[in-house]
Amino acid sequence: MSVTAGEPRSSSGDRTAAGPDLDDLLRRTAGGDRDAFTRLYEAVCRPVVGLVTAVVRDAAQAEEVAQEVLVEVWRTAGRFRSDRGSAMTWVLTLAHRRAVDRVRSARAAGERERRSAVRDWERPYDEVAEEVERHLEHERVGRCLAELSRAQRECLVLAYYAGLTHREVAAALTQPLGTVKARLRSGLRLLGECLGRP
Amino acid sequence: MAEDGPHDAVGAYVLDALPDDDRRAFEAHAAACPECTREVAALGAVAARLGEALAADPPPGLRERVLRAVGQVAQEGQKGQEGQERHGAEPVADVVVPVVRPRRRVPAAVLAAVVAAVLGLGGLAVWQWREAADARAEVQRAERQAAGVADVLAAPDVQVRTKALAGAGRATVAVSRGADVAAFFATGLPALPAGKTYELWFGGAGAYRPAGLLPGAGDRQLRLEGPVAGATAVCVTVEPAGGSPAPTGPVVAWIGLPSETEQPPAPPPDPDPDPGDFPYP
User: Fold this and answer.
1) Residue A16 phi/psi, 5° resolution?
2) Residue ranges covered by each domain of chain A
3) Bridge partner list, A54
4) Taking Cα atoms as reference points, which of B57, B185, B76 lies closest to residue B131?
């Protein structure tokens, strides 16, 4: 394997353990602390914008969704429970859900008019992957995605980054639904193992 | 876990890939299944890493609009609020979420390496592997030229890129940045009119260097001439027999090379008014 991306890079731009404790900022946000929210915003806005943009694709709509998400973080911060996951996970779970909601409602509106037309979820995997790579800023996630089988990676990328339902993934890849479900689950599990390796 | 049981949907669930009816069914199942809830939390953290890996500069004004909105939007009450988000309001208590390792923000310059990691050998589709293997077999048959091509394929850091040709067939470039060599393989190369040849180019920094002529059609291979250094793409055009000093003819393939940090150059001018679905970047 020729890839050299895995070497640790100690210089420039690393945000290490010295970074803000996001869980704490989110807890303080829940208590109405606007300064804490501002600092939280600084820490999460780039991934929120990147994720929402990758899923929604349309820049104007993505901007709208990102703004809604960030305000919703403020509004619903009281729901965060640090024993159930990190603040970043909480924020990005919310961002992904909202981005997918937007994509699906847009698709449903369009599809009523053109049921038999070519559907936008038939976007080829490679196109989605290219778009994701344009925004991918995390070498370890890229490397761990590359460690999955192509079949697992396709399912994960189409479900998460293209916002398809598992049935749409199955249709797009002409695979049985059960196979897609199994790949989504095993793909995430392997990805988690890879991400957790030192 | 039973095949096709509700639990199988846990991956799809955390990826927001369940339609509403399936999602409700899964949530009803998970409410009575601590094991499921644990897996939702664990896989949900992994899914979020897929999101966190992306990053983009916020559009101008977003920060101001959000902070202004925050000054006007009331927060939900802190108690008695029925949460809707799976992360914040799971019905099952005390889920221990695995600690996610601290993350490092990667400078933009590393992007190219990430792309190489995903698209490079690690991300190669099986058929690309096969194509490389086929190429190796081909090499053994065509000995004279093979030496050069085999060097490239045998390089420890060889990486492969494949693109569909504008008309028919497929083009593959194998490149070793370490050895500074590259080879080109085409399958199903369409036949050209008399007096025409395919010509290959290294593209980089807006300029194109000739990298060799490839007359003929069908399955062809060529060790590219000259160093790869500085090139970000290999381009194939149709030129008059004997070749041209700079691309003049229709572009039939444009294949971005792995790694190096600069952007691919703009494709050369294409006099063909109908380039078809040629994949310009």
Assistant:
1) -100, -155
2) 21-117, 118-198
3) none
4) B185
Residue range A118-198, CATH number: 1.10.10.10
Structure confidence at residue B13 as a pLDDT band (50, 70, 90): very high
- Quote the ipTM score: 0.84
Residues 240 through 259 of chain B touching chain A, CB cutoff 8 Å: 259
Angle between helix axes A34-56 and A87-113 (nearest 10 degrees) is 40
Tell me, yes or no, if A10 comes closer than 8 A to chain B by beta carbon: no
Give the angle B232-B193-B143 at the CA atoms, nearest 5°: 60
- What residues of chain B, 83 to 142, have a C-beta less than 8 Å from chain A? 83, 85-90, 94-98, 100-108, 110-111, 113-123, 125-126
Predicted TM-score (pTM) of the model is: 0.55
Task: State the Rg of chain B over Cα.
Answer: 26
The CATH architecture annotation of domain A21-117 reads Orthogonal Bundle (1.10)
Non-local (6+) Cβ contacts of B88 within 8 A are A76, A79, A80, A81, A84, A90
| Residues of chain A found within 8 Å of residue B54, distances taken between Cβ atoms | 47, 50-51, 53-54, 132, 135-138
Q: Where do the domains of chain B lie, and which CATH numbers do they carry? A: 1-53+84-98 (1.10.10), 114-256 (no CATH)
Taking a C-beta distance cutoff of 8 angstroms, is the pair A164, A158 a contact?
A: yes
Residue B89 or A77, more confident: A77
Residues pairing with B159 in the sheet? B175
User: What pLDDT does A183 receive?
Assistant: 96
Cα–Cα distance measured from residue B13 to residue B22, given in angstroms and rounded to the nearest whole number:
9
Q: Give the pair of three-digit tokens for residue A47.
A: 């991934």
Segment B224-236 shows an average pLDDT of: 89
- Report the alpha-carbon distance of residue B146 to residue B216 in Å, rounded: 17
Chain B interface, best mutation among A88, A97, A181, A190, by max B CB count within 10 A: A181
Check CB contact under 8 Å for B117 and A5. Answer: yes
Find, among A35, A47, A124, A142, the residue nearest to B259 by Cα.
A142
Q: Which two tokens mark B68?
A: 């202004």
Between A96, A97, A143, which is nearest B117 by CB? Answer: A143
Reading the block at residue A16, the tokens are 């290490």
Distance CA B195, CA B215 (A): 10
B41, pLDDT greater than 90: yes
Residue to test with chain B: of A141, A154, A175, most B Cβ within 10 A: A141
CA–CA gap between residue A169 and residue B18 (Å, rounded): 11
DSSP of A54-87: HHH--HHHHHHHHHHHHHHHHHHGGG--GGGS-H
